[in-house]
Structure formats: structure tokens, C-alpha cells
Design a protein that fits this description.
Shape: globular
Strand order of the largest sheet: 1-3-2
Mean pLDDT: 86
CATH architecture of the largest domain: 2-Layer Sandwich
Length: 227
């Protein structure tokens, strides 16, 4: 029951004995997931920036150790398991490369927050809310094209509305709290966490923005090394 409260019900393979490589390789979902993950890590500027930032923070990410392709509940695309420092990728729900890019980026933001701060994921809903706000804001979840694909249109302030709504939705998916509790937690930390743009330094509204942020991050690193 306690684990259910922590969202593990959405990731039923978390507590199972790992399958052998031979067994896993026979499943198309698993192969496709691994191939899409490799493509994201090799080519996506959002993910590349986060991987480099984590490495600089002393938290090097290894593909075989820190990513796991698994079958999940139909309502989720991925998750960050802080108990194992592992990102779960839902191989039965991620069917397109663009979706894989967003899920990996979203979960890497949680991993980055876990690396740089003492986040109490399980007992402090405000901590969880802050990381969910940052993940929705910086991962591309709320880009104009993604919102149009969801048939959601807005004018001024729509990005903030999307970030708030998706942060609340994420909290409700993994914690047994009331909607009012989730909303209160998000609203109390929203301004601070929405304006925390590390390690991007800007809100990357597109892949072009993410590439610029990655270049700026690399330049910042070289500048700091010369001080």
C-alpha cells in the first residue's frame, strides 16, 4: 500500500527480477525503445545539455545503468525512480521518436534536480511540485505545437497555464493526494520554480532554442574553466 502511494503501481516491472538479455531482445517494444533512446541521447540537444550538466555536477549518466525500458500503466510515458536513480521509459507507450525525446528530457530534469538538490520526493509534495513545474517548463512538454496537437489553444500566459496543469496532473498520477493538495503545492512554489531555468538558462521553446542553450552552456563551462 505504501509503494502504491509512491506511484510504483504505474511501473509494475520495478519490483520484478530483471529478465535476461536474450529474453528482452525478443520483444520488439524493448528493441524499439532502446534504439529510440540511443537516438535521443546521441542527437537531441535537450538531453545532451542535461547529460553534460549532470556530469559537471558529479552525476554521470550511463545508458545501461540509469535507463530502463519497461512496460508501464497506459497513462504514463516514463518516470524517475529516485530510490535507484533510474529513469523508466515506458516501452509500450512510447511509439515515436519525438515522444521519446520529450520523455527522456522530462525525466532527466528530475534526475538533474535529484543530483543538485536534496529533494524529498516522497514526503514533501512541494519538492515534487517544484521539479514537475521545471520539467513541464523546460522539456518541451508545453511547446505551441504540442499544445495544438492536444487541441489546446490559448493567448497570453498559455505556456504558464500548460506548465501548471501538467505539473498538477503529474503529481496526481504518482501520489495519492487530493487535487486541492496538488494545486496548492504547485501554486505555492510556482513563481520560484518556473523561473529556475537551470541548466538551460532560458525556456527552450524549440529544438533551435535548445541548441542555442547547449552552445551557451558549453561556452559558460569554458569561461568558468579559464577563471
Amino acid at each position: 500500500e505504501e509503494e502504491d502511494d509512491l506511484g510504483y503501481r504505474l511501473f509494475p516491472e520495478r519490483n520484478k527480477k530483471p529478465q535476461s538479455f536474450l529474453v528482452r531482445s525478443l520483444f520488439t517494444f524493448h528493441n524499439r525503445c532502446q534504439l529510440m533512446l540511443r537516438m535521443t541521447l546521441d542527437t537531441n540537444p535537450y538531453a545532451q545539455l542535461l547529460l553534460e550538466a549532470m556530469k559537471q555536477s558529479g552525476c554521470t549518466v550511463f545508458n545501461d545503468r540509469h535507463f530502463s525500458c519497461e512496460n508501464c500503466d497506459d497513462c504514463v510515458g516514463g518516470g524517475f525512480d529516485s530510490a535507484t536513480s533510474q529513469i523508466v521509459l515506458c516501452q509500450n507507450n512510447i511509439r515515436h521518436q519525438s515522444h521519446m525525446n520529450r520523455v527522456v528530457t522530462h525525466e532527466l530534469i528530475h534526475a538533474f534536480d535529484h543530483c543538485r538538490a536534496h529533494v524529498d520526493w516522497f514526503k514533501n509534495v512541494k519538492h515534487l511540485a517544484c521539479s514537475e513545474i521545471r520539467a513541464a517548463n523546460l522539456s518541451g512538454d508545453c511547446t505551441l505545437m504540442n499544445e495544438i496537437a492536444r487541441f489546446k489553444f490559448g493567448l497570453k500566459g498559455h505556456h504558464q497555464t500548460c506548465v501548471r496543469d501538467r505539473a498538477i496532473r503529474s503529481i496526481l498520477a504518482v501520489r495519492k493526494v487530493s487535487k486541492e493538495t496538488a494545486e496548492k503545492a504547485v501554486d505555492e512554489v510556482f513563481d520560484t520554480c518556473f523561473n529556475d531555468l537551470e541548466p538551460f538558462g532560458r525556456i527552450p521553446h524549440s529544438k533551435t532554442d535548445a541548441k542555442r542553450a547547449y552552445k551557451d552552456f558549453q561556452s559558460r563551462d569554458r569561461y568558468n574553466a579559464n577563471l
